[in-house]
Specification:
Radius of gyration: 18 Å
Largest sheet: 2 strands, antiparallel
Shape: globular
Strand content: under 5%
Mean pLDDT: 82
Oligomer: single chain
Distance between the termini: 23 Å
Structural class: mainly alpha
Length: 295
């Protein structure tokens, strides 16, 4: 990989990681309703991507379902979880997306699991168990349940996306944005209150944050990553994107003062090491196994 492209990938991963911590600040410190925040983000994405909306990919039901799973559903669940959990813990729990995707690929696509992938999955699950372990036993807090659900939602969307062909990244983002903003707006109206008063109280910092997450993260960073996918094999990129959870943990400790002790460190090392084993298998890795989150 050329040095320029490596630095671009590092920048993309750092943007994704910082966005995870920023989202925590928005939904927790600023008390912005999480579904409403996700709707604002996808509204900007849909507006920017509008020129690439047509023609609609076929079959329509599949692209709509993928948009709901990888867009609105994934981000809404993640933001709800971030209200009550730390970015560091969320970054580790999100690694469940790897075993989820592998299991769903076996069940839905008939893929076979090589023994090395099985070891990687086992390491990832063991790492997550260590993170959620408490002296009184294993317990997944409400926030981490939502983060785990976000990982599962993204994994189902990733498996469905394997059947999508001849859809450009910009057209895909356009439909994810449109489907997500419609569904999230309806959900926010039904289940949340005080959206605009919270937004008004946050003021211009919220506007800047939404523009950052929509334009820099969703449009900019993801487009840059798609560029890298076109020029390099996924089994080269996938291990390098593990910079994202590591940087999320670092940003979480520095910015939101996350608690990070020996147990968390061991769990993170095992979970991320498991993902690395999967990503380094001989056959080209599916990039979605590692990156679908990290946004």
């Amino acid at each position: 990989m050329r040095a320029r492209d490596f630095l671009l990938l590092v920048l993309v991963c750092l943007i994704w990681a910082f966005n995870n911590v920023l989202s925590k600040i928005i939904v927790d410190d600023w008390a912005i309703p999480p579904i409403f925040y996700a709707a604002l983000r996808f509204a900007v994405v849909a507006l920017v991507m509008l020129p690439w909306l047509l023609p609609m990919p076929r079959p329509a039901w599949r692209i709509i379902l993928i948009g709901l799973l990888m867009g609105g559903g994934n981000f809404a669940l993640l933001f709800i979880g971030l209200q009550t959990t730390s970015p560091s813990s969320a970054a580790i729990i999100l690694q469940l997306g790897v075993p989820f995707t592998i299991l769903l690929s076996v069940l839905m696509l008939g893929e076979r699991v090589h023994w090395r992938r099985g070891i990687g999955v086992s390491f990832t699950l063991l790492g997550v168990l260590i993170v959620i372990w408490r002296p009184e036993g294993v317990a997944l807090s409400a926030g981490l349940w939502f983060v785990a659900a976000a990982a599962f939602s993204g994994s189902v969307g990733a498996v469905l996306m394997k059947r999508v062909v001849d859809v450009s990244p910009f057209r895909f983002q356009a439909w994810v944005g449109l489907v997500s903003v419609i569904s999230l707006t309806l959900c926010s109206l039904l289940f949340e209150q005080g959206q605009w008063s919270a937004a008004t109280a946050a003021g211009w910092p919220l506007v800047v944050a939404v523009l950052f997450t929509a334009l820099i993260v969703s449009v900019g960073a993801h487009s840059a990553y798609y560029y890298l996918i076109r020029h390099y094999e996924a089994n080269l990129l996938a291990p390098l994107t593990l910079i994202t959870p590591l940087a999320t943990i670092a940003f979480g400790v520095l910015i939101t003062h996350d608690n990070f002790d020996l147990r968390m460190g061991l769990g993170a090392a095992l979970a991320i090491g498991g993902v690395l084993i999967v990503a380094l298998r001989r056959k080209p890795a599916t990039a979605l196994l590692v990156d679908r989150e990290q946004r």
